[in-house]
Structures are given as structure tokens and as C-alpha cells.
Design brief:
mainly alpha; 4 helices; plasmid
Amino acid sequence: MPQYLMFAENVYNKIKDEELFSHDCIENMNLLMTCIRREIEGTEFKLKFNFIDFVEVFSRPLDECKVKNRCEFDSSS
């Protein structure tokens, strides 16, 4: 099994077993990022971005966000 799938499985099991998800999407995304950071600590894997402002991503229209969506990345190549 590729190592990144093991990371995903470990993160999923931790969140599921400890019942960490709530009804707040932003809190859930921050929790997920924290779990991923802890899981990849000490490995060759790194996150592409150190910080993602989920409040901005979820509260503004896509054309006003600083974070590009996949379509914007794909069309530029």
C-alpha cells in the first residue's frame, strides 16, 4: 500500500475513533490539516501550503478568493 494511503487511513481512523468531527466545516478542515501535519511529521512528505484560510475559502465567491481552484490551475497550462 502506498505510504500516502496509510497516512490517509491513519488520519481517518483517528478522527473516526475519537469522534472529532463537528458540524462546523471550518473547524473540521482545520482539524483535518492538524491531523495530516502530525501524521506526516518526520517523513519525506510535506504540505504544499503551510496555511490555508478556510474562512476566506468558504465565505467568499471563488473569483474573490486568493486560493485558486483546480480549473484555474488547469487552464493556465
